[in-house]
Amino acid sequence: MNCTKESLLLYAVTDRHWLNGRTLTDQVKEAIDGGATFIQLREKELDEENFEQEAREIGALCRERHIPFVLDDNVLLAQKVGADGVHVGQSDMEAGNVRGLIGPDKILGVSAQTVEQAIRAEKAGADYLGVGAVFPTGSKDDAKEVDYDTVKAIVEAVSIPVIAIGGITKDNVGELSGTGIVGAAVISAIFSKEDIPGATAELKTAVEQMVRSAERM
Predict the structure, then answer these.
(1) pLDDT tens per residue, range 128-138
(2) Any idea what the CATH number is for the domain that residue 58 is in?
(3) Where is 2-[(2R,5Z)-2-carboxy-4-methylthiazol-5(2H)-ylidene]ethyl phosphate annotated to bind (predicted)?
(4) Is 139 annotated as ligand-binding?
(5) Is residue 49 part of a domain?
(6) Is position 181 within any domain?
(7) CB 37 within 8 A of CB 7
(8) Is residue 211 included in any domain, yes or no?
(9) Catalytic residue positions, numbered
(10) Is 1 contained in some domain?
């Protein structure tokens, strides 16, 4: 599965915090039904055996629906389950080492907060960058905010696609218009909602409008 600018439009990052007795696979299916274009499986507390089973189930769903599927941080498990790739942060394995492990054909996403980090990630073989947090967020305790000008400077400094993450909702995503980002990555804006397909569809419309308005500028 290739990583294209279009596939990064609405990037859904999972969080089992809002399952309420349901399965994560069911919630991911609803997000895809609502228009999510990319799935990242993020697990911080699940044991390896259950994480693997979950990754295989969601990976199969994404393949069936032709949606790129990556794992957060866990390079070895991503390889084991045949995920499309992996996303790493600045405190995880160095991007160049990850690229060496997964090979040239898998997707590599890297988190960046500065122009220097972004340039370094691109040189190391990243296919896309996740930049943020662009707004205050409760989903990641260690997230530092990245302002509008820094996001724009990062986009201008690299040739790979950039998406924004952190506190994004359908009501504030328009504030990112003009930065040059190609999409938005969200967690609670999708998975905390009772109507996941509906929330996803509304958010996708808002992100599309933000990207299109920037293209007209």
Answers:
(1) 999 999 999 86
(2) 3.20.20.70
(3) 137-139, 167, 187-188
(4) yes
(5) yes
(6) yes
(7) yes
(8) yes
(9) 42, 111, 140
(10) no
Residues 6 or more apart whose Cβ sits within 8 Å of residue 101:
75, 79
Supply the range of the domain harboring residue 63.
6-216
Identity at 118, one-letter amino acid code = A
Euclidean distance between CA atoms 2 and 30, whole angstroms? 22
The H-assigned helical ranges of the chain are: 24-34, 48-65, 75-81, 95-102, 115-123, 148-157, 188-191, 196-216
Pairwise CA distance, residues 76 & 83, whole Å: 10
Does pTM surpass 0.85?
A: yes
Q: Are 129 and 160 in contact (CB under 8 A)?
A: yes
DSSP letter for 174, please: G
| 188 annotated among ligand-binding-site residues | yes
How many whole angstroms from its chain centre is CA 71? 10
Tell me: is residue 72 an annotated ligand-binding position.
Answer: yes
Helix (H, G, I), strand (E, B) or coil at 125: coil
Cβ atoms < 10 Å from Cβ of 142:
7
DSSP state of 33: H
d(CA 139, CA 153) in angstroms, rounded, equals: 25
Structural domains in the chain (count): 1
Q: Is 190 annotated as a binding residue?
A: no
Q: Convert the pLDDT of each residue in 9-34 to its tens digit.
A: 999 999 999 998 899 999 999 999 99
Non-local (6+) Cβ contacts of 9 within 8 A are 37, 38, 182, 183, 184, 204, 207, 208, 211
